[in-house]
Amino acid sequence: MIQKRLFLVILFFLNSEIMFSQDSIFAKEQSKILLFTDNFLGFDNQQNYYSISNNVLSKTNSNSKFEYKNVSLGKITHVDFQNPLQIIVFYNDFNTAVLLDNQLNEIKIIDFNLLSEAVNIDAIALSSQNQLWIYDAISSKIGLYNLNNDAIKWISTPLDSLIKHYKSNFTRFYWLNDKNNFLSISIYGTIETFADFPAFEKIQLINNKILLYYNDNQLFFYDIAKKQSIKIKITENFVANFFFADGILAIFTENKITNYNIILP
To answer: Is residue 22 in some structural domain?
Structure first.
């Protein structure tokens, strides 16, 4: 009888530990890197770190540092570095995007004000086949801009809500609208609506299955299908920014990046 009770007690604590581990994602610290910047953006698949200070875009690694600035275009609004060989820098105030190479040299400047069709671009990201995803605030449509012939192919009807946050891969464009709905569109124009989203202060859209968000000094993984938030355990009490890719979670705070290894569910 005593042995049976002892077994049940041990089983209870084992089950409690398993349940606790399922409620949290444990991050294992990998490395720390100093980075003196105003705004950490993230890293690419070649472990280059991107940041903005005083409206200057920087790309740094252990061996080199490259910078890009264009004071005539105003404030940098968005940077897409998912392809390190074709980086997009967007200046919303001047309705202009700049394409850069892997050393941040200008490849092409796209002034959308010069197009025959009036557009006011509010979102832009890299797509496939030498195209860019664009969202036009005038028509409220999503389209594909062809870098070869400067033509736009509209692939959506007018959206009924504004885009707040967005991300792309080469075949899909993901966004959160001002109603906190999460949607995506394919290059063929097929739109999917996935879920409403909880309150957040910072967010990274990963794909149509998972998101990461920061709220009330806590970092969370969000399972879209299950509508479930799981806390990610890190040592930092305050996060200025974060970025996740390929199993590495980079936390930026006080001019320092802490890289963690994490395995998402």
So the answer is: yes
Number of independent structural domains in the chain: 1
The answer to whether 153 and 143 have CB atoms below 8 angstroms apart is yes
pLDDT digits (tens, 9 = 90+) for 99-125: 999 999 999 999 999 999 999 999 999
Asked whether the whole model's pTM tops 0.85, one would answer yes
**18: domain range?**
1-34+201-265
Residue 69 lies in a domain: no
- CA dihedral 51→182→111→87, nearest 10 degrees, is 40
Contact 146, 133 (CB under 8 A): no
Q: And the tokens for 251?
A: 């936390």
Give Cβ neighbours of residue 213 (< 8 Å, ≥ 6 apart). 197, 198, 200, 201, 202, 203, 204, 219, 220, 222, 229
Alpha carbons within 13 angstroms on the beta-carbon side of residue 165 total 17
The dihedral built from the CA positions of residue 151, 157, 162 and 168, taken in this order, carries a sign that is negative
